[in-house]
Amino acid sequence: MSLARKIQDSLKFKYFWKFPDVDTAAILIDQDLNYVHGRVKNGYALIESIPHPETGYHYKDIVKVSKTQYVRYLREDKIPEYEITALYKRSPYKTFTFEVKLWEYRDYFHLQDNFNYFNHKFSIPEFKKDKVGIWTFVYCSSKDITEARTILKRFTDLNKNCKVKNIAPA
After folding, report:
1. Pick from 59, 56, 83: which is nearest to 70 by CA?
2. Which of 12, 50, 54, 98 has the most CB atoms around its CB within 10 Å?
3. What domains can you pick out in the chain, each with its CATH number?
4. Would you state the pLDDT for residue 149?
5. What is the pLDDT along the chain (170 residues), one digit of tens a residue?
6. Would you give the DSSP letter of residue 55?
7. Which of 8, 7, 3, 47 is nearest to 25 (CA)?
8. Do 158 and 114 touch, CB atoms closer than 8 A?
9. In angstroms, rounded to a whole number, what is the distance separating the alpha carbons of residues 120 and 93?
C-alpha cells in the first residue's frame, strides 16, 4: 500500500467516526457473549473499550459488524447489540496488565484522566469502592510497554500514595 493511500485511509477514518450512526453500541466479540462498547457507522464499528486479551481484539480496532435482534443495558439505557463479522483494520494498540493500589476512591478518576491525557483507556473489571486500598488487577491500552510505563509513572508521580506493579503484556 502506497504512502498516499495510507494517509488517505487514515484521514478518512479519522473524520468518519465524528458522526456515527450509533454513538454507543454493544459489540459482541465471541461466542462466550463477551462484548465491548463502540461506535457504529455503515456496517463498521470502532472498538472504544478494552476487550479481554484472549478474544484477540484490541482497543481502537475497526471491525465489520451486523446488527442482532438484541439490546444491552448500559447503566439504565438500552443500547443496540452488533456482532463482529470480520476484522477490518487492526489498531496499533496492545493490551497490557498491571496491578494498582489506589489510596482513595477519587484516584480512579485521576487514573482515568491520566490515560485520557495520552489518548488511551484502562479497565478495572467490576470496580467498586471496596477495591480501594488493595492491589487490583487492571487492563490498559498502549502502543508498547514503554509507553504504558510512562503513563503509569506520570500517574504515580501525580498521586504519591498510589502504587503500581507488575506491568506486562496481556
Report:
1. 83
2. 50
3. 3-89 (no CATH), 94-169 (3.30.70.2690)
4. 93
5. 577 766 666 666 667 777 778 888 889 888 777 889 999 998 999 999 998 888 889 999 999 999 989 888 888 888 899 999 999 999 999 999 999 999 888 888 999 999 999 989 998 887 777 778 889 899 999 999 999 999 999 999 988 889 999 998 98
6. G
7. 47
8. yes
9. 9
Q: Sign (positive/negative) of CA torsion 32, 40, 86, 143?
A: negative
Taking Cα atoms as reference points, which of 82, 33, 27 lies closest to residue 60?
27
Please tell me whether residue 67 adopts helix, strand or coil conformation. strand
> What does the block give as the cell for 55?
478474544
Global pTM value:
0.80
Half-sphere exposure of 45 (CA within 13 A, CB side): 32
Query: Hey, what's the cell of 128?
Result: 467498586
Distance CA 34, CA 155 (A): 29
Geometric angle at alpha carbon 56, from 54 and 164, rounded to 5°: 60
Compute the distance between CA of residue 81 and CA of residue 106 in angstroms, rounded to an integer: 31
Q: Residue 111 has which C-alpha cell? A: 487514573
* Residue in 75, 66, 88, 85 with CA at minimum distance from that of residue 22: 66
Name the pairing type of β-strands 136-142 and 94-101. Answer: antiparallel
d(CA 58, CA 55): 9
